[in-house]
Amino acid sequence: MYTSAASLVRSADKIASPPKVFNKVNEIVNDPDSTTEDIARVIAEDAGITLRLLRVVNSAFFGYNQKVDSLDQAVMALGTSQVRDLVLATTVADSFDGLPPDLINMELFWQHSLACGVAARSLARVRKEMNLEPFFLGGMLHDVGRLVMFSKMPEQSRAIVVRCQQSNEMMHQVEREVFGFDHAEVGGCLLSNWGLPPQLEEAVASHHRPQLAVRNPMLASVVHIADVIVNAVQMGRSGTPVVPRLFPHAWSRYGMAASVLPQVINEMEMQYRSFIRALEAKATEK
């Protein structure tokens, strides 16, 4: 048994390191002497990622009026940080191949994750946040710790899944009871290992307890709200059988009227479908 979320992540071997292409792109983004051409050149080494990235950039998710035909144009249009985040969002699934299908339906899990990312981005856009990508990435990665737990502790995790299905308990609460930590904390430790920004790590680690966030309480609150919305409308499935409770603290922090929700949900569904079509390029890239 692992004594902490950090010790679990450290034991996770390949998973404890970020996807290779993301790692290379992240190093270039953090190099003040690098250029957009350097980033495009690294991404171009993987034809599948290149195809997926261009399709996402040209989808309704971003809504550009002119078609983006090259990686150089994509990096110029989006900026280096957004491109880096999209590379991670479109490759992170590759790190978790081979999980037991009777434990988790990976297709439904990633549908839930993507929907949460799109919902968080829509919530932030309605609030007129200037930088939307941390919200998208926080939503996209909020449950990634669950995959680490399924990978390293499949039998214990299976017992928790069965218990929650029978009792309608919240999975993160049972995880803390059994292990002393939950999948949110594991996800935060994983993102820390991957070298992602501390506020993103915090948003993932506190998405079930957003009142604990201090670095960027707004980001954590929006990811929490997005998770509740996506579970409520049943887009994909992350494994929990019940809709998480919405913390009033998070909605108060968000600061918008409930009347924005229909707009957010409509936008989320449209952009989700657009992003899914773009990611389906993965199936035809070989």
List the main descriptive attributes of the protein structure presented here.
single chain, 286 residues, mainly alpha, 16 helices, 2 domains, Hypothetical protein af1432, 63% helix, 0% strand
Tell me about this structure:
It contains 16 helices and no strands. With 286 residues, it is mainly alpha-helical. It folds into two domains: 17-95, no CATH class; 98-272, Orthogonal Bundle (Hypothetical protein af1432), CATH 1.10.3210.10. α9 (144-152) packs across α10 and α12 (183-193) packs antiparallel against α13. The protein is globular, with a radius of gyration of 18 Å. Residues 282-286 have low confidence and may be disordered.
Q: What's the order of the H and E elements? A: HHHHHHHHHHHHHHHH
The beta-strand count equals: 0
| CATH homologous superfamily descriptor of the largest domain | Hypothetical protein af1432
| Count of folded domains | 2
CATH classification class of the largest domain? Mainly Alpha
Oligomer: single chain
Main sheet?
none
Assigned CATH architecture of the largest domain: Orthogonal Bundle
Output mean pLDDT: 88
